[in-house]
Queue: 4 jobs
Job 1
Amino acid sequence: MSGAGARVTVSVQAGVEVRRVDAIHGVLRFVIDVLRLGWLEATVEKGVRQNQWLTMLRIVGLDSEERIAEELVFAIDWDRHQLHMAQGRGTVAVPNGRSLVAFVSPDLLTALRLFKEACFRKELVVTCFAAHRDTPGGNASAELGLGGPVTLKYAGAKLQAPVGIGELDEVSGSYNRYGPT
């Protein structure tokens, strides 16, 4: 159940600069590929690369009582992103000999592995929720293929571990486990 053999669809020439938004998109695409959530590709493409509307992606494992038992959360601070852009830091370097996956930190790999293993072991149903910024027409939910707000319960007390995304400080992540391990 590890992500080591997952198909990674994001690639760039190593040793080049890439737009920050493309690096953010690449990290989320990596997560989608490792967790085999291909149905999220269009949402992430539109919500990150095209419109910069997506502010949070929550991937959850629901138990048989539809309570959240496992959770990966990725938040994008577009105001911080714009600050980088305004200060001339609109690109990030991809190290020589690496691909865009260079932005995938060891703690993100660990979080993905733990999430997958726990969902398999506990027989959880994996689904996703997202949040977005307000848009002029107010139609971001429909355009991103998202449903309305959902209220879910948690399977117990929260154990949280932050997940770093390296140089992309406008993206934060966490791996959360609820209830007994």
Job 2
Amino acid sequence: MAEIIASITLAEQIASIALLVSIGSVLYMQRAIKLSVQPNLNIDHNFASPEKMFVRVRNDGIGPARIIKLKVSFKNVFKEHNSDNGWKYVSNERKQFRVEFTKYSFKPGDSIIAGNAINLIALKTSGNLGKIEKEVKDFLLFVSDIKFEIKYESFDKKLQESESWDGSKENLFGKF
């Protein structure tokens, strides 16, 4: 055995060490790339004007986010119907507010590409100037009782911290 070790030249030893170092570097780089390509979902809102009143989810990360579950609650009550994320219950509750809105419902496996934003809910006005002020007020009252919660993962299946938004006055109007 000692003869085999002794017969390895210095050049072969250096080449072996270089090979091990390069393999280690490649593995380290693959891990670093995987860790850096992570999604980061944020839910925010814009109530600047009736034409642009929405609550949206935005992927501010570098990698795509794969949706595991979206939950939409109203007054802290979550009632799902046929995997609708709670939208049927929320839509029924909106009748008392007489609010029209567009919505987006994620299915498990849907994704949000880095840099993209999707409106979860947006006011749909009648276009009648006499009614818009009331529609805006009713929409704000309605949204103040909604909570969104999104459970998601990166594409390497690493579970990310859930993102949530509720319509509390602090979220809607900032700190008083």
Job 3
Amino acid sequence: MSTALTIDAQSASEYCRTCKLEYPVSRGSAYENGTPFAIYVAGMHACEKGGSAIIAIAFRGAAGEAPRAATVQVWAVEEQFQMSVPEPAQSPWLSHKYLGRMLSRTEALEPSLKASLFRVADAVVYQNRQVRGFFAWLDRPSAKNGT
């Protein structure tokens, strides 16, 4: 049986620790059949390596347990999106304590979490208008030429 995964979103901003410029952020919740089960925060910035979205996804813990979070970096390669799970030290979201404990790459890629992690990341990339707009902006000819 297939379940419907939807997200909501609100806009915010952060400052890049590398270039010190403000960049757009979208944050929201992920719902499975209308029930919330995760939150996310997606930063979209183009200062390094042609631009990417870095998404932290935090999953609700069981009763009495803190949430667990992992980071997914997303970039476009022609007509496809590529995704990678960096270590927590590489995540701009590590200091955002409301996300819970940031999992290591190995922990995030364990079979019990991996499918849900990439399913939410896909939903953010394909359903979030701000994230889609960012990748469309990166695809413009002037961005490809570095201008």
Job 4
Amino acid sequence: MTDNNSDLRELAIKWLNRPSFEMKHDLILEGRSGEEYKMDMMIEPKIISKTDEDKLLVSIADIKKSAGTDIIRKIELVRQDLQLKTLLISNKFSVQARSLAKRSDVLLISRSELEACLKTL
């Protein structure tokens, strides 16, 4: 069981940390445009071939208000430039943000969804 006051990053690490995956923290990645992006984490498999399709970027927005479409648009631009799958973790998301994320191929998970997943581990 997780504590409601647990740090969102700690919860994400606990959920994403699996023996068959390598987790890298606090990365600076260069996009195809030449722009650099600071990402919270990247997960990639240890065993199978490591292509860009196997990697998952993780961005954590530990904010009190619902993450909105502004954050989704920013993450989508980063995702497109880096050409990598992207997961955004936040305390909660607005309905509009969830709708935009579905159209943008940005994966979302909220704190409550994360906590529910951790209960099943």
